[in-house]
Amino acid sequence: MESKIVSTALGIAAIGAIGAHIAATTLQNTPDSYNLDMRPYVGGWSVPGWRFFAPNPGNQNVHLLVRTRDAEGTLVSDWKDVTPPVHHSVFNVLINPRSRGPKALFDAMQQLTVMRDNYAGLDWIFKSLPYELVADTCRGLIKDSVGPRFQYLLMNYVPSAPESERMQPILVSQWLAINTEGAAG
C-alpha cells in the first residue's frame, strides 16, 4: 500500500517536472513577435527568438515573389507572392504531412541568404543548387503565366523589426525562361 502511494507520488512529480520543463522551454523559445507582452511576467528576463533545433534563429518570414515579362521585354507584370502556404494544425506536433516541399524551399532560400550575406559572387549564386531549386519551384507555380520569362525575388519579412525595416530584399534572380527548353538569361 505504501509503495503504491510512493509510486503514484513519484509519477505525479515526474509528470509535473516534465510539464514544467516543456513550459519553460516553450517560453524560452517563443518568437519575440509573440512574447513581447509576456516579458513583465518573467522578471525582466530577455526572451530570445525562435530556435528549436536550429543554429540560426527563424525570426523572419521568407516570401517568394515572381513577375513575368513578354518576349520583347516591354510588358512586365507586377510582383506576385507565390510563397507556398505552410499548413499548421494540432497534429503537426506528431506528424507533419505536406511539409517536405515548403521545408526544402525554405532551406534553399536560407542558403541563398547566407551566400548573399557572405558576399558570394552573383555568378556563383546563379549556378548554385539552391538558386536552381527556387527557380524550378517558381516554374511549377507559374505554369499558366503569360510571357516566356520570369524573375523571382526573395524577401524577408521581420515582424519584430521597426516598421521601416520589416521588408528586407534578399536576392533578385536573372530573367529566366519559364519553359526550361528555352534559353535562360
Automatic annotation (TrEMBL):
* Name of this protein: Uncharacterized protein
Annotated InterPro entries: DUF5819
Cross-referenced Pfam families: DUF5819
